[in-house]
Amino acid sequence: MKKRLMDLAVIGGGPAGLAAAIEAKKQGIDKVIIIERDNCLGGILQQCIHDGFGLHRFGKRLSGSEYADNCIVEAENEKIEVAYETIVLEITAEKVIYAMSSDEGIVEYHCKTIILAMGCRERTRSQAFIWGTRPSGVLTAGTVQRYINIEGYLPGKKAVILGSGNIGLIMARRMPLEGMSVEGVYELMKSPGGLTRNISQCLVDYDIPLHLSTTVVRIHGQQKIEGVTVAEVDAKRNPIKGTERYIECDLLVLAVGLIPENELTRQLHIEIDSKTNGPRVDENFMTSMNGVFACGNVVTVFDLVDYVSQSGEIAARGAAGYIQGSLKLKEEYTDITPGENVSFVVPQRIRAGNLDSGLPLYFRVKSRDENVVVTAIAGDCVCYRKKHRIVLPPEMLVEELESSSICENAGKNGIIINVTGSVV
Fold first, then answer.
1. What is the CA radius of gyration of the chain?
2. Same fold, 1-121+258-327 and 331-424
3. What is the DSSP string of 150-203?
4. Could you please report the per-residue DSSP string of 342-401?
């Protein structure tokens, strides 16, 4: 068994892992390695050939593969080591990583610090609880995207899309360009799950209908899918009898949500936030285990890759501080909790003494609202206030609190983030 001594191991070579490794090098960490299970870097971005990436980070519209390439080139310039086709089997509390490499067999990485950047995965048919047989032709949106954009294979001729997640919306636009027809997009909830711009550009512009409060209740077919039955649902999301409708199709595309990939995180007994399904992190994106950091979609599912990269850089600066001994690890944490109309907040807690500049907060609202104000309340003090014309659950809000205000007002009662109606 080969043994390697590393300062930092980044698990995952997607946009979060790349950003973390690059920033770590810039922070003076010498021995940095990215452990990647695929044979190339970039993660899911490599199959995203549509544009709209990088507006915040690079100031221009890039395709996903172009965004990834920019990051890969920067990683190469920093001479960051990459272990390709390497799967992490186990991480111990002593920060020893056991991994299986296609070239070297079992490898031990003894690390001073670790950054978890494994990304997320799609919910499957079994997690959507759809009745019926198990024929071929029932695929997740990401799988369809890979078949068409990477493999050059058309998985069907007539598709039904269940769920209005962003990948599903993007594939609703992509399939007609390849000669496939899309009968419609069916969403269980009463509001869309994807970004407003994707609803407009991918459905409205291509005359693809969106059916809200409607779901697929049965799949038909034996060897190959022949069709599906859809039905409207009531306020409790139960199918309404008499609203069933059969649709002939040879492809059912599932875009029913993403889940942070946290098997390794749970293996370490790191605290998981039930609202995000990712680890609870602090101002440096350090988890409940000292010296183990997390970033990107493994923490929570972001809607923009720019935020994914930003979280990687924050985690890398935290990892550098941990190695250099500059983090105040004995200071008591102050909790940051979601308040009115807020479903979750990342980070979930902070040590104010570690804040050199502003504190970015990432959160989503529970329901759509207009003319609202975002407030951060610490004790009896409103330490942050900003108005928004409209807020939507699919669109993540990112607000930066001033560190001086937090340090002055954060106490044992913590900080509460609210999104409430404002006076117009």
1. 22
2. no
3. II-----SEEEEE---HHHHHHHHHHHHTT-EEEEEE-SSSS-SS-HHHIIIII
4. EEEEES-EE-GGG-SS-EEEEEEESS-EEEEEEEEEETTEEEEEEEEEEE-TTS-EEEEE
DSSP annotation of 205 reads G
Residues ≥6 apart with Cβ < 8 Å to 299: 260, 276, 278, 279, 281, 285, 311, 346
With H, G, I as helix, E, B as strand and everything else as coil, classify residue 2. strand
Q: For 124-256, which CATH class?
A: alpha beta
- Name the token pair of 25: 């090098």
Closest CA to 274 of 365, 348, 377: 348
Beta strands in 55-180 (DSSP E): 81-83, 86-91, 96-101, 105-116, 120-122, 131-132, 138-140, 158-162
Q: Is the pLDDT of residue 424 over 60?
A: no
With the C-alpha atoms ordered 210, 216, 220, 222, is the resulting torsion angle positive or negative?
positive
Statement: residue 353 has pLDDT above 90: no
Alpha helices in 178-290 (DSSP H): 196-198, 263-267
pTM of the model: 0.94
331-424: in CATH 3.40.50: no
Cis amide linkage into residue 347, ω under 30° from 0:
yes
For residue 113, CA distances in Å to 1, 260, 352, 421 come to: 21, 21, 22, 43
Note the pLDDT tens digit of each residue in 383-413. 899 999 999 999 999 999 887 767 666 666 7
108: left (phi over 0), alpha (psi -120 to 50) or beta: beta
Q: What is the number of alpha carbons within 13 Å of residue 30 lying toward its C-beta?
A: 3
Task: Please state the domain extents for the chain.
Answer: 1-121+258-327, 124-256, 331-424
Residues 119 and 15: their CA atoms lie apart, in Å, by: 9
CATH number of 1-121+258-327: 3.50.50.60
